[in-house]
Amino acid sequence: MAQVAISKVAKAFGTVKVLHEVSVDIADGQFVVLVGPSGCGKSTLLRMVAGLETVSGGTITIGDRVVNHLPPAKRDIAMVFQNYALYPHKTVEQNMAFALKLRKTDPAVVAERVKRAADILDLNPYLKRYPRQLSGGQRQRVAMGRAIVRNPQVFLFDEPLSNLDAKLRVQMRTEIKELHQRLKTTTIYVTHDQIEAMTMADKIVVMRDGRIEQVGAPLELFDRPANLFVAGFIGSPSMNLLKGVMRKGGKPGVDIAGTLFPIGDNAAQDGQAVVYGVRPEHLEIHPDGVPAKISVVEPTGSETLVFLRFGDGEMVALFRERHDFKPGDTLTLKPRLDQIHLFDAETGQRL
Ligand SMILES: Nc1ncnc2c1ncn2[C@@H]1O[C@H](COP(=O)(O)OP(=O)(O)O)[C@@H](O)[C@H]1O
Ligand SMILES: [Mg+2]
């Protein structure tokens, strides 16, 4: 196992810069997730760690070696791709054994490593089958098995669950997390799915347009997003982000579309343009709340999502208990004062 240091790494394809001096430190044994919208540079960064893309600037260190100019095979990493990239004409067993055979590993060692991977991944019944005879989830497991047998210092995953249906995705994400708890191999995992990032990561790196927006533990990002982008990206349903103006004449409040929303002590100036952030689950029904009219009710069984309008504004509230709400009803909603996020409307930074 090894730590990985990505230090001021930049990437340009021709004249187009797609990564701008990105730095991430990954501790030995840590599970780090790179998350961000499509096109933000996640795969490019991962492929640079793998040695599949050249580095335009900065350094990548694996263990105590700078690997910028090492070919992939010498980096002691194993990568799992979204499309699995299995050999169609090899069986499950042969797929898993192939990389070791190429390296002329002792056949006894190959057999032992394949057996261990098959045990870990519950692949024993399928060892003689070909990829086309497997379900998507089983193929995904073979791709992971192929990575495990190599006993690498670092696992690299690029959106490995994107081709699976929703239910299997949830199951496989638990399996990968469990696998990491067992093997404790340093892992870099790329996804565009913030729920995957939240549930799997020790540490999340939120990226946008080739830059890092914030790095932190999942709940740190959830509880204290550093800017509007992270606030809107992390959490489902998304945080309400309401544009308004700070009023500090009397009791502080934010004027949003003519309605005054309560807020505690804060760093904004009177009259400053701000964005008031409150998660749907942090709006409570309270007689002193802000009146808002229900437009749509979405019950999921375990919770109810309610879309509301107040003046020109709109917001979403989430309730875990059952209510008999109807479109057209008016609710008075009070944001929980300890759960309000305030951002500068111009810079988007947390205040
Ligand atoms: N080989 C390439 N040549 C030119 N541009 C590329 C190449 N690979 C990726 N890009 C561009 O780099 C940016 C980042 O891509 P990528 O790392 O694949 O994003 P992500 O994995 O976050 O969706 C995108 O704008 C993409 O079009
Ligand atoms: Mg990608």
UniProtKB/TrEMBL annotation:
GO MF terms held by the record: ABC-type transporter activity; ATP binding; ATP hydrolysis activity
Family: Belongs to the ABC transporter superfamily.
Bilayer topology: Peripheral membrane protein
Classification via PROSITE patterns: ABC_TRANSPORTER_1, ABC_TRANSPORTER_2
Protein name: sn-glycerol-3-phosphate ABC transporter ATP-binding protein UgpC
Entry superkingdom: Bacteria
Entries under SMART domains matching the protein: AAA (SM00382)
Residue runs in coiled coils: none
Protein species of origin: Mesorhizobium huakuii
Domain ABC transporter: 4-234
